[in-house]
Amino acid sequence: TSAPGKPLLQCCVKKLKGGFVSNLVHNFKEGDVVGLSPPFGTFAMGEKPAVLISAGIGATPMKAFLDVHKSKVKMALHVDKSEATHPFRQEFLDSGVSTHFHYTSQDGRPTAEDLVKLVEPHIADCDFYLCGPDSFLASMKVALTSAGASGVHVDVFGPALA
Fold first, then answer.
1. What is the chain's pLDDT, residue by residue, as a tens digit (162 residues)?
2. CA distance 100 to 95
3. DSSP state, residue 44
4. Extended beta strands in 59-161, E state
Protein backbone atom coordinates (compact mmCIF):
# COMPACT_ATOMS: atom_id res chain seq x y z
CA THR A 1 0.00 0.00 0.00
CA SER A 2 3.00 2.31 -0.14
CA ALA A 3 2.76 5.25 -2.52
CA PRO A 4 5.41 5.52 -5.25
CA GLY A 5 8.59 7.19 -4.05
CA LYS A 6 8.12 6.30 -0.38
CA PRO A 7 11.28 5.08 1.39
CA LEU A 8 9.52 1.96 2.68
CA LEU A 9 7.34 -0.84 1.41
CA GLN A 10 4.17 -1.53 3.37
CA CYS A 11 2.48 -4.85 2.66
CA CYS A 12 -0.95 -5.52 4.10
CA VAL A 13 -1.87 -9.18 4.49
CA LYS A 14 -4.94 -10.29 6.42
CA LYS A 15 -4.16 -13.45 8.38
CA LEU A 16 -6.66 -16.17 7.51
CA LYS A 17 -7.19 -19.32 9.55
CA GLY A 18 -5.61 -22.08 7.48
CA GLY A 19 -4.25 -19.58 4.93
CA PHE A 20 -0.88 -20.83 3.71
CA VAL A 21 0.53 -17.52 2.45
CA SER A 22 -1.10 -15.22 5.01
CA ASN A 23 0.21 -17.30 7.92
CA LEU A 24 3.66 -17.49 6.34
CA VAL A 25 3.79 -13.70 5.96
CA HIS A 26 2.56 -13.12 9.51
CA ASN A 27 5.42 -15.30 10.79
CA PHE A 28 8.14 -13.20 9.08
CA LYS A 29 10.72 -11.72 11.39
CA GLU A 30 12.72 -8.56 10.88
CA GLY A 31 15.69 -9.44 8.69
CA ASP A 32 13.96 -12.29 6.82
CA VAL A 33 14.71 -12.18 3.08
CA VAL A 34 11.74 -12.42 0.73
CA GLY A 35 11.44 -12.31 -3.04
CA LEU A 36 9.24 -9.54 -4.42
CA SER A 37 7.94 -8.49 -7.80
CA PRO A 38 6.55 -5.13 -8.83
CA PRO A 39 2.78 -4.68 -8.72
CA PHE A 40 0.92 -5.62 -11.86
CA GLY A 41 -2.58 -5.26 -13.21
CA THR A 42 -4.81 -2.52 -14.51
CA PHE A 43 -6.36 -1.15 -11.32
CA ALA A 44 -5.15 2.43 -11.63
CA MET A 45 -6.89 5.72 -11.06
CA GLY A 46 -7.85 7.70 -14.15
CA GLU A 47 -8.28 11.44 -14.64
CA LYS A 48 -11.86 11.84 -13.37
CA PRO A 49 -12.74 12.47 -9.72
CA ALA A 50 -13.16 9.24 -7.79
CA VAL A 51 -15.30 7.47 -5.23
CA LEU A 52 -13.61 4.58 -3.39
CA ILE A 53 -15.84 1.70 -2.29
CA SER A 54 -14.40 -1.20 -0.33
CA ALA A 55 -15.21 -4.00 2.06
CA GLY A 56 -12.88 -5.83 4.46
CA ILE A 57 -9.25 -5.97 3.40
CA GLY A 58 -10.35 -4.36 0.10
CA ALA A 59 -9.45 -1.10 1.86
CA THR A 60 -5.80 -1.80 0.99
CA PRO A 61 -5.69 -0.41 -2.59
CA MET A 62 -8.02 2.40 -1.52
CA LYS A 63 -5.47 3.53 1.05
CA ALA A 64 -2.85 3.63 -1.71
CA PHE A 65 -5.20 5.67 -3.95
CA LEU A 66 -5.81 8.04 -1.06
CA ASP A 67 -2.06 8.47 -0.49
CA VAL A 68 -1.33 9.25 -4.14
CA HIS A 69 -4.51 10.93 -5.43
CA LYS A 70 -6.22 12.47 -2.38
CA SER A 71 -7.28 15.56 -4.33
CA LYS A 72 -9.27 13.38 -6.78
CA VAL A 73 -11.08 11.37 -4.10
CA LYS A 74 -14.51 12.83 -3.42
CA MET A 75 -15.73 10.08 -1.10
CA ALA A 76 -14.60 6.83 0.50
CA LEU A 77 -17.20 4.24 1.54
CA HIS A 78 -16.18 1.13 3.48
CA VAL A 79 -18.07 -1.88 4.84
CA ASP A 80 -16.53 -3.99 7.59
CA LYS A 81 -17.49 -6.17 10.53
CA SER A 82 -16.62 -3.52 13.12
CA GLU A 83 -14.57 -0.43 13.80
CA ALA A 84 -11.89 -2.66 15.35
CA THR A 85 -11.50 -4.77 12.17
CA HIS A 86 -11.54 -1.80 9.76
CA PRO A 87 -8.11 -1.50 8.06
CA PHE A 88 -6.71 2.05 7.74
CA ARG A 89 -9.77 3.60 9.40
CA GLN A 90 -7.80 6.38 11.04
CA GLU A 91 -5.92 7.20 7.82
CA PHE A 92 -9.23 7.74 6.03
CA LEU A 93 -10.60 9.87 8.86
CA ASP A 94 -7.42 11.96 8.97
CA SER A 95 -7.41 12.49 5.19
CA GLY A 96 -10.20 15.07 5.17
CA VAL A 97 -12.01 13.11 2.44
CA SER A 98 -15.75 12.58 2.93
CA THR A 99 -16.24 9.10 4.40
CA HIS A 100 -19.03 6.69 5.22
CA PHE A 101 -18.30 3.54 7.23
CA HIS A 102 -20.86 0.77 7.68
CA TYR A 103 -20.24 -1.86 10.35
CA THR A 104 -22.21 -5.07 9.91
CA SER A 105 -21.95 -6.11 13.57
CA GLN A 106 -23.95 -2.98 14.48
CA ASP A 107 -26.15 -2.35 11.46
CA GLY A 108 -26.38 -5.64 9.57
CA ARG A 109 -25.26 -6.23 6.01
CA PRO A 110 -26.23 -3.37 3.67
CA THR A 111 -27.63 -3.97 0.21
CA ALA A 112 -25.73 -2.68 -2.78
CA GLU A 113 -28.70 -0.44 -3.56
CA ASP A 114 -28.52 1.12 -0.08
CA LEU A 115 -24.82 1.85 -0.56
CA VAL A 116 -25.41 3.36 -4.00
CA LYS A 117 -27.86 5.83 -2.43
CA LEU A 118 -24.96 7.12 -0.33
CA VAL A 119 -22.81 7.84 -3.40
CA GLU A 120 -25.65 8.96 -5.68
CA PRO A 121 -24.54 12.63 -5.75
CA HIS A 122 -21.32 11.46 -7.45
CA ILE A 123 -22.82 9.08 -10.07
CA ALA A 124 -22.61 11.51 -13.00
CA ASP A 125 -19.20 13.04 -12.30
CA CYS A 126 -17.00 10.34 -10.79
CA ASP A 127 -15.38 7.05 -11.56
CA PHE A 128 -15.91 4.33 -8.97
CA TYR A 129 -13.17 2.03 -7.68
CA LEU A 130 -14.28 -1.18 -5.95
CA CYS A 131 -12.36 -3.75 -3.94
CA GLY A 132 -13.63 -6.46 -1.61
CA PRO A 133 -15.14 -9.95 -1.60
CA ASP A 134 -16.42 -11.32 -4.92
CA SER A 135 -20.13 -11.13 -4.06
CA PHE A 136 -19.72 -7.53 -2.84
CA LEU A 137 -17.96 -6.54 -6.08
CA ALA A 138 -20.56 -8.18 -8.31
CA SER A 139 -23.56 -6.64 -6.56
CA MET A 140 -21.95 -3.18 -6.30
CA LYS A 141 -20.97 -3.14 -9.98
CA VAL A 142 -24.54 -4.04 -11.04
CA ALA A 143 -26.09 -1.48 -8.68
CA LEU A 144 -23.72 1.32 -9.76
CA THR A 145 -24.18 0.72 -13.48
CA SER A 146 -27.97 0.44 -13.00
CA ALA A 147 -27.86 3.83 -11.25
CA GLY A 148 -26.05 5.36 -14.25
CA ALA A 149 -22.36 5.17 -13.29
CA SER A 150 -20.22 4.80 -16.39
CA GLY A 151 -16.75 4.29 -14.94
CA VAL A 152 -16.82 1.33 -12.55
CA HIS A 153 -13.41 -0.26 -11.96
CA VAL A 154 -12.98 -3.48 -9.98
CA ASP A 155 -9.87 -4.87 -8.28
CA VAL A 156 -9.92 -8.63 -7.87
CA PHE A 157 -7.65 -10.43 -5.41
CA GLY A 158 -7.36 -13.69 -3.54
CA PRO A 159 -9.08 -16.87 -4.80
CA ALA A 160 -10.81 -14.94 -7.60
CA LEU A 161 -7.43 -14.63 -9.31
CA ALA A 162 -6.88 -18.38 -9.42
1. 666 677 777 776 777 788 787 788 888 888 888 887 766 667 788 899 999 999 998 998 899 899 889 999 999 999 999 999 999 999 999 999 999 999 999 999 999 999 999 999 999 999 999 999 999 999 999 999 999 999 999 997 655 554
2. 13
3. -
4. 73-80, 98-103, 127-131, 152-155
CB-count exposure of residue 53 (10 Å: 0-12, 13-18, 19+): buried
| Strands of the 73-80 sheet, one edge to the other | 98-103, 73-80, 50-55, 127-131, 152-155
Amino acid of residue 142: V
Residue at 95: amino acid letter? S
In angstroms, rounded to a whole number, what is the distance separating the alpha carbons of residues 156 and 94?
A: 27
Using CA atoms of 21, 26, 27, 28 in order, give the dihedral in degrees to the nearest 10. 90
